[in-house]
Amino acid sequence: MFNKMIVGYDGSEGSRAALSRAVDLLRNRPDTSLIVAYVNDYEEVGQTSFLNENLGTAPVLTDINQAPTVPLDADNQLAKEYENKMIESIQLELNKHRVEARVEVITGHPATALTNLAEQEEVDAIVVGNSGKSGFQRFFVGSISEKIVKDSPCTVIVVK
Question: Is CATH 3.40.50.620 correct for 4-54+64-159?
Protein backbone atom coordinates (compact mmCIF):
# COMPACT_ATOMS: atom_id res chain seq x y z
CA MET A 1 0.00 0.00 0.00
CA PHE A 2 2.53 2.67 1.15
CA ASN A 3 6.27 2.51 0.61
CA LYS A 4 7.18 5.69 2.49
CA MET A 5 5.20 7.61 5.12
CA ILE A 6 5.58 10.74 7.22
CA VAL A 7 3.98 11.14 10.63
CA GLY A 8 3.52 14.69 11.89
CA TYR A 9 4.37 14.58 15.59
CA ASP A 10 4.10 17.27 18.25
CA GLY A 11 3.66 15.19 21.40
CA SER A 12 -0.10 15.75 21.54
CA GLU A 13 -2.61 12.97 22.02
CA GLY A 14 -3.57 13.29 18.36
CA SER A 15 0.01 12.93 17.14
CA ARG A 16 0.57 9.90 19.37
CA ALA A 17 -2.56 8.34 17.85
CA ALA A 18 -1.21 9.14 14.37
CA LEU A 19 2.11 7.45 15.18
CA SER A 20 0.26 4.44 16.55
CA ARG A 21 -1.80 4.18 13.34
CA ALA A 22 1.33 4.45 11.21
CA VAL A 23 2.92 1.67 13.26
CA ASP A 24 -0.17 -0.49 12.62
CA LEU A 25 0.23 0.13 8.90
CA LEU A 26 3.93 -0.80 9.12
CA ARG A 27 3.12 -4.15 10.73
CA ASN A 28 1.51 -5.21 7.45
CA ARG A 29 4.35 -3.79 5.33
CA PRO A 30 7.63 -3.98 7.25
CA ASP A 31 9.57 -2.73 4.20
CA THR A 32 7.80 0.65 4.39
CA SER A 33 10.07 3.46 5.53
CA LEU A 34 8.83 5.89 8.13
CA ILE A 35 9.77 9.49 8.84
CA VAL A 36 8.54 11.09 12.05
CA ALA A 37 8.60 14.86 11.65
CA TYR A 38 8.46 17.41 14.42
CA VAL A 39 7.73 20.90 13.13
CA ASN A 40 9.40 23.70 15.04
CA ASP A 41 7.31 26.68 14.04
CA TYR A 42 9.32 29.19 16.09
CA GLU A 43 10.61 30.97 13.00
CA GLU A 44 7.11 31.12 11.52
CA VAL A 45 5.26 32.61 14.46
CA GLY A 46 8.13 34.65 15.84
CA GLN A 47 7.58 33.57 19.40
CA THR A 48 8.01 30.54 21.56
CA SER A 49 5.59 27.95 20.25
CA PHE A 50 5.98 25.26 22.85
CA LEU A 51 4.87 24.58 26.39
CA ASN A 52 7.16 24.66 29.38
CA GLU A 53 5.98 24.30 32.94
CA ASN A 54 8.49 26.98 33.99
CA LEU A 55 6.97 29.45 31.53
CA GLY A 56 3.34 28.86 32.45
CA THR A 57 2.64 32.43 33.50
CA ALA A 58 3.64 35.78 32.12
CA PRO A 59 5.12 38.43 34.38
CA VAL A 60 2.79 41.23 35.42
CA LEU A 61 4.23 44.57 34.38
CA THR A 62 3.35 47.53 36.54
CA ASP A 63 5.22 49.99 34.33
CA ILE A 64 5.00 49.23 30.62
CA ASN A 65 7.92 51.56 29.96
CA GLN A 66 10.25 49.29 31.93
CA ALA A 67 9.77 45.86 30.42
CA PRO A 68 12.27 43.28 31.65
CA THR A 69 15.19 42.69 29.35
CA VAL A 70 15.52 39.21 27.89
CA PRO A 71 18.51 38.15 25.80
CA LEU A 72 17.54 38.19 22.12
CA ASP A 73 18.38 34.53 21.67
CA ALA A 74 16.62 33.30 24.85
CA ASP A 75 13.48 32.12 23.03
CA ASN A 76 15.61 30.57 20.32
CA GLN A 77 17.63 28.67 22.94
CA LEU A 78 14.46 27.46 24.66
CA ALA A 79 13.05 26.37 21.30
CA LYS A 80 16.26 24.39 20.63
CA GLU A 81 16.07 22.75 24.07
CA TYR A 82 12.44 21.83 23.45
CA GLU A 83 13.35 20.48 20.01
CA ASN A 84 15.89 18.17 21.66
CA LYS A 85 13.28 17.01 24.18
CA MET A 86 10.85 16.31 21.35
CA ILE A 87 13.45 14.20 19.54
CA GLU A 88 13.97 12.20 22.75
CA SER A 89 10.20 11.84 23.19
CA ILE A 90 9.77 10.63 19.61
CA GLN A 91 12.57 8.10 20.03
CA LEU A 92 10.95 6.80 23.23
CA GLU A 93 7.64 6.35 21.37
CA LEU A 94 9.42 4.53 18.54
CA ASN A 95 11.22 2.27 21.01
CA LYS A 96 7.91 1.55 22.77
CA HIS A 97 6.42 0.42 19.45
CA ARG A 98 9.65 -1.38 18.46
CA VAL A 99 9.82 0.50 15.20
CA GLU A 100 12.69 2.15 13.39
CA ALA A 101 12.17 5.51 11.76
CA ARG A 102 14.06 8.58 10.72
CA VAL A 103 13.31 11.58 12.93
CA GLU A 104 13.26 14.95 11.18
CA VAL A 105 12.98 18.42 12.67
CA ILE A 106 11.60 20.89 10.18
CA THR A 107 10.69 24.56 10.52
CA GLY A 108 7.82 26.68 9.31
CA HIS A 109 4.06 26.49 9.45
CA PRO A 110 3.22 22.85 10.26
CA ALA A 111 0.96 22.24 7.24
CA THR A 112 3.34 23.85 4.77
CA ALA A 113 6.44 22.24 6.28
CA LEU A 114 4.90 18.75 6.26
CA THR A 115 3.58 18.99 2.70
CA ASN A 116 6.94 20.35 1.50
CA LEU A 117 8.76 17.47 3.21
CA ALA A 118 6.32 15.00 1.67
CA GLU A 119 7.07 16.40 -1.77
CA GLN A 120 10.84 16.41 -1.23
CA GLU A 121 10.86 12.87 0.13
CA GLU A 122 8.33 11.59 -2.43
CA VAL A 123 6.27 9.90 0.25
CA ASP A 124 3.07 7.97 -0.37
CA ALA A 125 1.23 9.15 2.74
CA ILE A 126 1.22 11.70 5.53
CA VAL A 127 -0.33 10.57 8.82
CA VAL A 128 -1.47 13.30 11.20
CA GLY A 129 -3.66 13.59 14.25
CA ASN A 130 -6.84 15.57 14.44
CA SER A 131 -6.49 18.62 16.67
CA GLY A 132 -9.99 18.25 18.05
CA LYS A 133 -10.79 21.95 17.61
CA SER A 134 -14.43 22.94 17.81
CA GLY A 135 -16.17 24.38 14.76
CA PHE A 136 -15.85 27.85 16.29
CA GLN A 137 -12.09 27.49 16.81
CA ARG A 138 -11.62 26.01 13.34
CA PHE A 139 -13.51 28.95 11.81
CA PHE A 140 -11.09 31.49 13.29
CA VAL A 141 -7.84 29.54 13.44
CA GLY A 142 -8.21 26.93 10.73
CA SER A 143 -7.21 23.32 10.88
CA ILE A 144 -3.69 22.18 10.15
CA SER A 145 -4.94 18.75 9.09
CA GLU A 146 -7.43 20.35 6.68
CA LYS A 147 -4.67 22.44 5.10
CA ILE A 148 -2.47 19.34 4.76
CA VAL A 149 -5.32 17.45 3.05
CA LYS A 150 -5.84 20.38 0.68
CA ASP A 151 -2.16 20.98 -0.19
CA SER A 152 -0.62 17.51 0.06
CA PRO A 153 0.99 15.84 -2.94
CA CYS A 154 0.01 12.42 -1.54
CA THR A 155 -2.57 10.53 0.49
CA VAL A 156 -3.30 12.01 3.92
CA ILE A 157 -4.58 9.96 6.83
CA VAL A 158 -6.12 12.03 9.62
CA VAL A 159 -6.43 10.02 12.82
CA LYS A 160 -9.06 10.90 15.44
Answer: yes
